[in-house]
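Running this now, will post back.
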Amino acid sequence: MIIKGKNIQISFFNLLIWILLLFMSFFYIILTNNFESLVWIIPVLIMLILIPLTLNYLNQVQYQNLIPVYKKEARFTKISAINSNMTGEIVKVEGIIKDVKFVFFNRPRYTIEDKTGAIAIIMFTNPSRSIKKGDNVFVLGQLIKKMIVTGKPAINAVCIERKD
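Update: finished.
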C-alpha cells in the first residue's frame, strides 16, 4: 500500500497473527453465541493492523528526513577501516549484498561486502526499493554495535540503494 509516496507494508508475521486471531474470534463467537464481544473484538483487530502500518509509515518518514543530513555528514569508509571505536559515526559504504534476512518482518538485515571486508547492515523498515543478494549498493547509516555491549560493529542504515 502506498501512502504519500511511501511503500507501507505490514510484515508477514503480523498478518499471520492477525488472521489467526480473526479465526479464533470467529470461532469463539460461533461457539458461545456471544455477539456482544464484537464490541471489543472488531476495534482490537482494526488496531492490530493500523498500529504496525502506522509505525512503518513513521519509520519511513523519519528515514526520509535523515537521508539529506546523512548525505551531508557521511564520509566514505572502507569496511575494513570500521571498528568499534567508531560507534556513532555516520558513514557511507559501497559493496555487494552477500546475505539478506528478516525481510518478511519489515526489519531487513543485510551483509555487505567490499574488497576489504564485510559488515552487517540493519534497517528498521524496508528500503524504498527491493534489495536482493548480489546487488551492488551504497549504504548510508550510523555505526552501532550489533550486540549492544560486546558486539561487532554494524551499520544502522537509513538508506540502502542499488547502484544502477
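The chain has a mean pLDDT of 88. More later if anyone needs it.
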